[in-house]
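Input record, target 12 of the design panel.
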């Protein structure tokens, strides 16, 4: 039997074989080091300090098998932040860091899951110890010492592509585009305290609220105080709305204070969507990932608020969807509103 020099054959094979191509990402510049502060914030919507803090919070969730030269956790986070900041297709983001679209898709999904693991810690309704401070902040914001306000509530529409042809009509809102109608309650400092992001665009704001956990807690008296909402909601003892036809100076004074305090939720939507334009211009992802993105951006918004990062440049389209007043205004709510007017807005 002919003797084969296996060592020689292997050596010749290795010499002819092209060298293994290292993952270029391991050699790429780190934006934390190469970007100036202004460019970094414009590109990723956060300061370096806030991004580093976020990385410390979720970095352990992004580490995985080191075989195959995976993306470093820093680039995983920045790739996701860049996607949320631009809403660009996965392929575009993949080109910017020289990875495939499928890798980008998996990376973004992993990072979104990690960010959403912070939800209960970052998005929480004020407890009994915090509520007095919340009420005081709103009293100051109203410029008229409006008492008992624990939050401002409203809904905003997030554009999406048609998620389900069989049920497409339920996702079409009154402006005629597909959307998720997202309910938010915020405090006077624009921190999101509650978010419900699952209802199709045709759903009325008041229905979303009636089916929310916060409504149930307010109904049971587990939370003391009242939210401020627009005329799309029914006036309740725990949700005060404006007077549609003010009759006297006290009614007008109440309405003025109501507008000043409630407007914070509109400003919250503006800052939230300006930081993450993908929310304003539309998400082209599958429905479950779309809902995941909405919640993740709310978590990130709150982190920005905590770090005092509310100064953003740029304009976003106004997609406010008109809402009909609900038919379930109740007598108790109207009486309670009148009592507040009589006690605090009549001179």
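The sequence produced for target 12 reads:
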């Amino acid at each position: 039997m002919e003797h084969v020099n296996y060592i020689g054959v292997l050596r010749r094979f290795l010499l002819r074989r092209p060298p293994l191509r290292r993952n270029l990402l391991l050699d790429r510049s780190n934006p934390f080091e190469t970007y100036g502060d202004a460019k970094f914030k414009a590109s990723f919507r956060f300061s370096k300090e806030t991004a580093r803090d976020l990385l410390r919070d979720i970095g352990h969730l992004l580490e995985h098998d080191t075989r195959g030269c995976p993306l470093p956790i820093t680039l995983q986070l920045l790739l996701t932040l860049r996607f949320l900041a631009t809403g660009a297709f996965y392929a575009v983001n993949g080109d910017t860091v020289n990875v495939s679209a499928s890798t980008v898709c998996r990376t973004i999904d992993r990072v979104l899951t990690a960010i959403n693991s912070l939800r209960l810690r970052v998005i929480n309704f004020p407890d009994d110890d915090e509520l007095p401070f919340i009420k005081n902040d709103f009293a100051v914001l109203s410029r008229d010492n409006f008492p008992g306000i624990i939050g401002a509530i409203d809904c905003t529409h997030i554009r999406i592509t048609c998620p389900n042809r069989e049920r497409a009509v339920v996702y079409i809102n009154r402006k005629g585009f597909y959307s998720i109608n997202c309910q938010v309650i915020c405090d006077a400092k624009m921190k999101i305290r509650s978010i419900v992001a699952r209802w199709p665009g045709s759903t009325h704001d008041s229905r979303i609220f009636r089916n929310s956990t916060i409504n149930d807690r307010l109904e049971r008296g587990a939370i003391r105080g009242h939210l401020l909402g627009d005329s799309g909601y029914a006036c309740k003892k725990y949700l005060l709305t404006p007077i549609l036809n003010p009759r006297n100076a006290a009614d007008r004074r109440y309405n003025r204070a109501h507008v000043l305090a409630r407007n914070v939720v509109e400003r919250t939507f503006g800052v939230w969507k300006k930081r993450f334009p993908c929310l304003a211009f539309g998400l082209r992802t599958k429905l479950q990932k779309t809902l995941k993105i909405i919640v993740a951006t709310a978590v990130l918004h709150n982190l920005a608020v905590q770090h005092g990062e509310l100064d953003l440049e740029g304009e976003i389209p106004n997609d406010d969807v008109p809402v009909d007043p609900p038919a379930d205004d109740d007598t108790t709510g109207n009486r309670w509103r009148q009592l507040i007017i009589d006690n605090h807005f009549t001179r």
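The chain has a mean pLDDT of 86.
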